[in-house]
Amino acid sequence: MNTGIDQTHDPAQRSWVESANDPATDFPIQNLPFGRFRGEEDLDWCIGVAIGDQVLDLNCAKLLETQDMNRVMRLDKQPRQALRLALSQGLRHGSADEVRFRAALVPQARVEMGLPCEIGDYTDFYTSIHHATTVGRQFRPDNPLLPNYKWVPIGYHGRSSSIGVGNAGLGQTFHRPRGQIKGPEAVEPKLEPCSKLDFELEIGAFIARPNAAGEPVLLTEAEEHVFGLTLFNDWSARDIQAWEYQPLGPFLSKNFASTVSPWMVTLDALAPFREPFNRPENDPAPLPYLDSLENRQHGAISIELEVWLQTAKMRANNHAGERLMHSNYRDAYWTVAQLVAHHTVNGCNLRSGDLFGSGTLSGPRPDQAGSLLELSQGGKRPVALSNGEQRTFLEDGDTVILRGYCRREGFRHIGFGECRGTVLPAHP
Ligand code: CA
Fold it and tell me: Which segments of 270-398 does DSSP mark as H helices, in order?
């Protein structure tokens, strides 16, 4: 597991990039997340690392020869950690590389961010027991959690073609989806625009090294197959979902758009924020292939998560938006390593650039719910906003902003940046 603390995590390190020393930045020298960017004139994506309000172009800085992020993600532990150390040493105060690195800096405000890599297959999990229980209760009041939940990391195969990047501003924009919707009293469904559009607060995990078909990844090696984490919004059309989901699960209610944040925060950077992974005392222990001492001691990661909403009215009034909830990734019922071990236990091969969604990350309290479905109790109790507006589900013009950050006494806090997306009206 990536629990090693070294000089790259030292909170005393400061950068000659002044904005990286701003206590408010998500991207101090201790973070060094990877993404792909291009300037206004460029056609191709370049590999960059965020530092303060700048991007370091890794080709210009002569740290990489490839422009292929998926190749970089396949690096073994030793070259991967050597690259992180070279970045840390080159960007810190007094570095001999300052002149070379300075020539490779571009302000983030002047570049367009792309998807962080070429995304192959996408699998969405369901790792919050709090989300699974609350949503289950809406459908099955007496039996909210299905019997397999505490044994199997539940997931389904999603679609990668409609995954976009949640850049600054409006972020990924998409039209409100249409689909078959059948009201509870209606005899037949109709094709109409979704009226129960929702967000889902999730963490995305990007696969690093592939495994060969037929060769399961052991839990103890699973994190060597994960490059880094992002924020992830799995937009969901609840009314389409309710009619289509039986018996094979979600389909068109989920695959019209999903938004990933532009920067992959590496598991190396997240090492100081590892936590024990505990289950309630009376819950069953995971089967042996999903259990290890290391996973119990360090499997969880403390990432504070927030969902913000900026309505069109707020935007018109220069209002930055309002926080709807916050939760923490450490409350997930399955760890990233367990997801990799489970996904491959049958011999399924993962490829670098594949994306896992964690599932909606609701916390134990009702105000920590990671979707409007939960916050508005299925649409029964509108969420009141401070400007007098209210929401049961999303309206046209709404921008949803996900944020995530890690804090621990004795370490520099790091963040994920933002994951933004905006709902456009349905196509006429
Ligand atoms: Ca989901």
Answer: 293-298, 312-316, 336-344, 372-375
The answer as to whether 2 is a domain residue is no
CA–CA distance, 348 with 266 (Å, rounded to integer):
24
Distance 133 CA to ligand 1 centre (A): 14
CATH of the domain at 68: 2.30.30.230
Give the integer Cα–Cα distance in Å for 57 and 37.
Answer: 9
Tell me how far the alpha carbon of residue 124 lies from the centroid of ligand 1, in angstroms. Answer: 6
Kindly report the length of the chain: 428
Is 93 a catalytic site residue? no
Compute the distance from residue 396 Cα to the ligand 1 centre, in Å.
21
Across residues 210-229, what is the average pLDDT? Answer: 98
Print the domain residue range for 233: 122-424
Give the tens place of pLDDT for each residue, 327-357: 999 999 999 999 999 999 999 999 999 999 9
Q: What is the average pLDDT value for the chain, to the nearest integer?
A: 97
pTM above 0.85, yes or no: yes
Q: How far apart are alpha carbons 222 and 110 in whole angstroms? A: 37
Enumerate residues with CB within 5 Å of ligand 1 (an ion): 124, 200, 234
Please identify which of the residues 9, 93, 130, 131 carries the catalytic annotation: 131
| CATH number, domain with residue 261 | 3.90.850.10
Residues 369 and 263 in one domain: yes
